[in-house]
Amino acid sequence: MSISNCIRSLLNIKDPNIIFSDNCVSQETVKGKTTHICKAILSVNTPPHCVHCGCINENHSIYKNGTKTVSIKLPNASNISTILRLKKPRFCCKKCNKGTIAETTCVKPNHSISTNTFHAAILESKSKRSVKDIAKSLNISHTTVNNWLKSINEDFVVSRLSLPEHLAFDEFRSVKSVKGKMSFIYMDADSGNVLDIVQNRQLGHLKSYFNTYPKEVRDKVKTITIDMYEPYIQLIKSCFHNAEIITDRFHIVQHLNRALNSTRVSVMNDTPDSKTKLKNYWKLILKDNLKLDSNDCHHYRCYKHLMSESMIVDDLLRVDKTFEETYWVHQRLTQAIRNKNMTSLLEILNDPPKNISIQMKKAIKTLKKYETSVSNAIKYPHSNGRIEGTNNLIKVIKRIAFGYRSFENFRTRVLLICNTMVRLEMKSTH
């Protein structure tokens, strides 16, 4: 293998017309940084016609007219900045007296940053790093990286020809410029692939968005998993006529936990003698009763004798009769959801005990209102677990970047990291 082939392979240059000679690599200090300088010549034939006037090259009507040396930024080699100094031949047309410079696939016309650097920046943008860190590692400006992200965002097209059979809807806290400060995200509930991010989660905006999908595509959706956000229910009934609504099991349990915790706080405020105990051991109250340790005893704060977890819970429940009844109703509901016991769940929702707290009565009334979707949570295996994990990833992206101003840049980074933009419909100029 020749020296040119070796260097082209090392620098990942695909253009075979770039020729390297012996001793073509040296080190120089450029803007205070040690930089690899690779010198090469672009060897191309005379063009068959003039790009300006269209004159065909006959009898040497187009002739070579010197060279022009350009500096092209390449991705770092061995963590050292690398610049390709390429001699490009000039050609002149005798008919129109206009000149042209030979071009290479290594870099776009009139640009000084290689296409490999562009691809490296996009690949780095798929990792959890800030734009400034990516730009610094590639020895380019963060404005350039942001402009590249904007360009691929403009060229990215969300297909309106199909939708998965099972969807998951949720929202997350977006950038400050977004109205309502919340944006909408939806994904394939089976694979966990993020399909798109919509700037505004308000009902009218979402209806307009999903109506861009043909009716026959929307009618193929079988289930949609959501939290108990009322506009999502109206959206599904309006746009997805054949879809079953599933209330996410996590949000059901969370709703019940909040009711029980609110009851605990009320009892704590009404019984000053037990306030410290109820405040310190709130986690045990929310824990599944079957998972409480009843054998291993330890010294606990507020107790003089050795106590186990189940003994502490029993002691706390004796503080108030209503609190005790509320606790056991909460346990029956959560265990019915975990065990997917539809009969037990509907029994409590349809005939709740009378001597439970007001907070738990309100929670049961809410679940009764969404009885069909709550029942579907037990009937179907789908949940919002993956989309909640993606929301946590979005928080990490925002924290690493110290926040975003532009929603478009933010959306692009999220879709890149979530692999939604893997197959980019890029323009030929890229």
List the helices and strands and how they pair.
Layout: H1 3-11, E1 18-30, E2 33-42, E3 62-77, E4 80-93, E5 99-101, H2 115-124, H3 131-138, H4 142-155, E6 166-173, E7 182-188, E8 194-198, H5 203-210, H6 215-218, E9 223-226, H7 230-239, E10 244-247, H8 249-270, H9 275-280, H10 282-286, H11 309-317, H12 321-338, H13 342-350, H14 358-369, H15 371-379, H16 385-400, H17 407-417
Helix pairs in contact: 3-4, 4-17, 5-7, 8-12, 8-14, 12-13, 13-15
Domain Transposase IS204/IS1001/IS1096/IS1165 zinc-finger: 47-96
InterPro entries: Transpos_ISL3 (IPR047951), Transposase_DDE (IPR002560), Transposase_Znf (IPR029261)
Organism: Erysipelothrix larvae
Helix-strand pattern, N to C?
Answer: HEEEEEHHHEEEHHEHEHHHHHHHHHH
Termini distance?
A: 30 Å
> How would you characterize the largest beta sheet?
5 strands, mixed
Number of strands: 10
How large is the share of residues in beta strands?
A: 15-25%
Mean pLDDT: 89
What structural class should be given to the helix and strand makeup?
alpha/beta
The number of helical runs is 17
- Which regions have little confidence, pLDDT < 50, spanning 5+ residues? 424-430
Radius of gyration: 32 Å
Fraction of residues in helix:
40-55%
Principal-axes shape call = elongated
Number of structural domains = 3
